[in-house]
Amino acid sequence: MSTYSSASDQDSVYSSPGPQNYSVGAANTMSNQSTSNVTSLPALLHSLRAHTINTLPALRRTERLLASLPPTTPQLPDLKRALQDAWIYYVDYHSLLNELRGLTKSYPFSETCLEQAKQAVSKAQGNYCYAVLKRVKEYGLIPAHARALAAKPVMWGGRKPSATEIQKLASACEGEWTRVVGVLLRHWEG
User: Fold this and answer.
1) String of b and e for 157-166 (b: at least 16 CB within 10 Å)?
2) What is the pLDDT of residues 135-158, one digit of tens each?
3) What is the DSSP letter of 89?
4) CB of 52 closer than 8 Å to CB of 44
5) How, if at all, do strands 22-24 and 38-40 pair?
6) Which end of the chain is more exposed for a tag (fewer CB within 10 A), N or C?
7) Of 176, 120, 124, nearest to 146 (Cα)?
8) What is the reported pTM?
9) CB neighbours (10 Å) of residue 132?
């Protein structure tokens, strides 16, 4: 329990229910397995549109939930569109970059690498985030951006680095960035 919380403020605006695990219940409801609450699909739609579902794991859980709904669910088209918009927001407003950089503390992920991938992918694709990450991985964007970063004098205190130094730093960046892109892509496996 936090220093600033007490039994009387458990339901305050500052308390958080923690991670939510939803399963499909009746046609228009989802049951929250961690609290046994029932949340309506309209509330989920609102959460997607308000960007309160805004992390890669939470968006993937929502994506899996929508995939499990019967195709005749009346709200399904609106929910799918809202989820697609949520993925676009997640990628375009730096949440994906922040997540990548949070996982690459030694060599922060290249914003220009991510931007190049975003420019090459259509936002109309089913999952914009997945398409961007696959583009980074499959089109060899990481090695080129790692080498460009390693060659910058600012990375070397203003001095011009040697070819060996550039190669060492580029290899370190490439290894860390490739590992992290792989970690994020695993959210879509099985």
Assistant:
1) eeeebeeeeb
2) 999 999 999 999 999 999 999 999
3) H
4) no
5) unpaired
6) C
7) 176
8) 0.77
9) 26
Amino acid in position 127: N
Task: Please report the pLDDT score of residue 11 as a whole number.
Answer: 38
Report which DSSP code applies to 53: S
The answer to whether the beta carbons of residues 29 and 39 sit under 8 Å apart is yes
137 vs 77, 102, 140, 179, CA distance in Å? 30, 18, 6, 10
Q: Please state the length of the chain.
A: 190
Contact predicate 76/69, CB 8 Å:
yes
Q: How far apart are CA 94 and CA 101, in angstroms?
A: 10
pLDDT tens-place string over residues 26-53: 444 443 332 222 368 999 999 999 999 9
